[in-house]
Design a protein that fits this description.
The complex is a heterodimer of chains A (about 280) and B (about 325).
Chain A lengths: L8 H22 L4 H5 L2 H11 L14 E4 L6 H10 L39 H15 L5 E6 L6 H9 L8 E7 L8 H4 L6 H7 L3 E6 L3 H13 L5 E6 L22 H10 L4
Parallel strand pairs in A: 1-2, 2-3, 3-5, 4-5
Helix pairs in contact in A: 1-3, 1-4, 1-10, 3-4, 3-9, 5-6
Chain B lengths: L6 E2 H15 L3 E5 L3 H4 L2 H6 L4 E3 L4 H13 L3 E7 H5 L2 H10 L5 E5 L17 H6 L5 E3 L4 H13 L4 E4 L4 E2 L15 E4 L4 E5 L3 H14 L4 E5 L2 E3 L3 H10 L2 E5 L8 H12 L4 E4 L10 H7 L4 H13 L13
Parallel strand pairs in B: 2-3, 2-4, 4-5, 5-7, 6-7, 10-11, 10-13, 13-14
Antiparallel strand pairs in B: 1-8, 6-12, 9-11
Classes of the chains: A alpha/beta (about 280), B alpha/beta (about 325).
């Protein structure tokens, strides 16, 4: 297939559906993984990879590509799905997820699969790496942008706030953080685990970020947020994307017992059929 | 460039960093509000666009350095050894696993820092860094050696850790010295015992060898500036020519130079090894008195080595100041 990007929301919705299908199939095949947190990021990843981000599925090392750092590394199946959809990796390679010798490691690994920019999965580290990328781009006077996808529970890590506190002092506007704010962590809800993570937007505002809130499953809103970030000058932007963990699969949506659990294969296929994901 | 005078290795690092900044635009430095201690302040003055202040936030500095390295820069991230290597997991993941060309620089190592005491003493840093599979670990023994190590590190492929002193150390080299990554330097021949040292303890090992000589004991002295990968060939040679090996480091005896030497020799040329180091967490005091107290003064090193040649087992108790 030839890779083309589009601003047509109905086309993007179809792509998002196919990413959900791939996420369910690959985690079911692997027998483990984090499908629900991957599902909450689908529209964010779709809007960037299939509409706004500069990248080439046939040239991972393109110098001028925009960088996408998935700091919530456990959500990496959504990226693998996007890579397969874009033709960067073969569709059937998704069946190797988490298997010995696979390029599709349980958490992102750029030494095996160069499309992922950074090894992450130890939470809290991706925003600092993204800040380093953005500072290097500014120093070199290049135009590529850096996107960093964070989890909400991940924002409990201190290093996130070290990076958040320091980024605006460099007057950079080539960095866009996106928080997949799905309100559910591994063992319970954010509200139960650490209610004082709220109000989340205020914390970023207090550190001088440009803050945008949006419905993280509304592709028009996500595209508008990404565009607003790109046109914001002199400060980094954070998009607080309100999402639903497990989005698209009613049994997983907002469930607190689906964090690190894959569906059975027949269950995944039944859901895909029921939800008309194919 | 390199001059023959006694300097702290942190000072030589600061000089070399400025020099490399002039010749290589990829070199960048980041600070966590310790630039005047870790000697990156002059680099910041001369290259303000390549110098980044993050406040007291070492994990963030490590991550940012990783990101900058991914985009082709050669970052030197310097702080006190205990503070920066204390962010071990970020170093393991962001730097190590990502195979970045970041240079972590840890200054203020060991009891040699003196009055500031335990909380500021990097005593476990080398052990931590050695566990990261692709991490080069370099501890220069003098100013000239440091300058050459920094020059080398600009082009080294992969992450590296540079371990530096707060206090002045003796200049043991002259301008003819060449730094060869991964190669130990035999400073003195000997046949009874080999004193294997690194960093600030090298000059003490040399003095201890003089003292041993007066007692009729022939001591070789080796300077291991590259602790990872360690020069196994040199260690094997020493184990074959000397009856005993004594490692000397301003670091805990576990996992640092002593650990590295034991691991190499156990596999290649089993030999009795006595590991001298700082048994404990360190404390405040005059550096020379602390070296005496922790068994790392020249007379204490000589006594330990002589005792080890005599008997073997019970000499580990010699550094009785250890707490």
């Amino acid at each position: 297939m030839t890779f083309t990007q589009t601003s047509d929301v109905s086309e993007l919705k179809q792509i998002a559906k196919r990413l959900r299908e791939k996420i369910l199939r690959m985690t079911a095949e692997a027998g483990s993984g984090h499908p629900s947190t991957s599902l909450s990021s689908v529209e964010i990843v779709t809007a960037l990879h299939f509409s706004r981000m500069r990248w080439d599925p046939k040239n991972a090392g393109w110098d001028d590509r925009d960088r996408f750092v998935i700091s919530k590394g456990h959500g990496v199946p959504v990226l693998y799905a996007a890579y397969a959809e874009a033709g960067a990796i073969p569709e059937d390679e998704l069946g190797t997820l988490r298997k010995t010798g696979s390029r599709l490691q349980g958490h992102p690994d750029p030494t095996r699969l160069p499309f992922v920019e950074a090894a992450t999965g130890s939470l809290g580290q991706g925003l600092s790496i993204s800040l380093g990328l953005a500072l290097a781009a500014k120093l070199d006077g290049t135009s590529w942008r850096t996107y960093c996808l964070l989890g909400d529970g991940e924002c409990e890590e201190g290093q996130v706030w070290e990076a958040a506190m320091s980024a605006p002092r460099f007057d950079i506007d080539n960095l866009c953080a996106i928080v997949d704010f799905n309100k559910i962590q591994q063992t319970s809800s954010v509200e139960e685990i650490l209610p004082t993570l709220n109000p989340l937007p205020d914390k970023w505002k207090a550190f001088s970020w440009h803050v945008i809130e949006c419905d993280g499953h509304d592709l028009e809103q996500v595209l508008a947020a990404v565009d607003e970030a790109a046109s914001t000058k002199g400060k980094p932007t954070v998009v607080i994307a309100h999402t639903v963990k497990g989005k698209g699969v009613p049994e997983m949506e907002n469930a607190t017992d689906w964090h690190g659990k894959a569906p059975k294969k027949d269950q995944a296929e039944a859901w895909i059929k029921e939800l008309q994901l194919v | 460039m390199s001059e023959k005078r006694d300097r702290a290795t942190r000072e030589a690092f600061g000089d070399a960093l400025v020099r490399m900044g002039k010749t290589d635009p990829r070199v960048v430095a980041m600070d966590g509000d310790v630039a005047t201690s870790v000697m990156t302040a002059e680099f910041g003055k001369q290259f303000p666009d390549r110098y980044f202040q993050f406040g007291i936030a070492e994990s963030n500095i490590i991550g940012v350095a990783a990101g900058m390295a991914m985009a082709g820069k050669v970052p030197f991230a310097a702080s006190f050894a205990c503070f920066i290597t204390g962010r071990f997991e970020t170093i393991r993941m962001s730097l190590g696993y990502n195979r970045t060309n970041v240079r972590i620089v840890g200054t203020h190592v060991g009891v040699g820092i003196g009055p500031d005491g335990h909380s500021q003493m990097g005593l476990e840093d080398c052990a931590l860094m050695r566990t990261i599979p692709n991490m080069a670990v370099i501890q220069p023994a003098s100013g000239i050696e440091t300058e050459l190590a920094v020059e080398y590190l600009v082009d080294h492929v992969g992450p590296a850790y540079l371990r530096l002193t707060r206090q002045k150390v003796r200049e043991i080299h002259d301008e003819r010295f060449t730094f060869e990554f991964g190669k130990g330097v035999k400073l003195r021949e000997g046949s009874d015992v080999a004193l294997v040292a690194s960093g600030a303890t090298v000059e003490r090992a040399l003095d201890a060898a003089d003292l041993l000589d007066k007692q009729g004991i022939s001591a070789a002295v080796a300077n291991i500036h590259t602790i990872q990968p360690i020069d196994a060939d040199l260690l094997v040679e020493l184990a074959r020519t000397c009856r005993r090996i004594v490692t000397v480091e301003d670091h805990v005896p576990a996992g640092g130079l002593g650990g590295a030497v034991c691991e190499a020799l156990a596999e290649l040329q089993p030999a009795p090894v006595l590991r001298l180091g700082v048994n404990g967490f360190g404390e405040s005091g005059d550096p020379e008195e602390l070296y005496e107290r922790f068994g790392l003064s020249a007379p204490k090193i000589a006594a330990s080595a002589a005792g080890f040649l005599e008997s073997g087992a019970e000499v580990a108790l010699i550094s009785e100041g250890a707490v």
